Amino acid sequence: MAMDALDRRIIDLLAADGRIPFAQIAGQVGVSTATVHQRVKRLRASNIIKGFKLELDWKAVGLPVSAIVSIVARSAQPLVEIADDLRKIDYVTSCASVTGEFDLVATVRAATPDHLGEIIDEIRVISDGSTVTALVLTAFYEGEAPKLAVDPPS
User: Alpha-carbon distance 22 to 45, whole Å?
Assistant: First the structure.
């Protein structure tokens, strides 16, 4: 499905606030509420919009410790399978394969430094490898969606 400038403007507004009413979007982009509804429905059906995320206050939910864990996997499993296994650890919030000296990078949330150590031990067992961990001191922002250009670069 090809997206046009209106789709991109709608996505930008939803990325800023996933709970924004369609009527408010319609007013800001200059179309009817029904048009916005149909566009969002089509974007979801096309899997361009995959869902809406909940943003948490990590400290309030008891997981104030954040770390980025770089993983060297020695397992014979394909990286995608290791990533699927890491997904089963409740405190791993993201995982990606990367270039360079590491195979995977995971973001982890923990209750305490000791808890983080337990999670890293689980990661090492799953990957049959080694890790290098960077403790996040201050997250200035997380999970921000980039603005979509009306005319995307080619």
Answer: 17
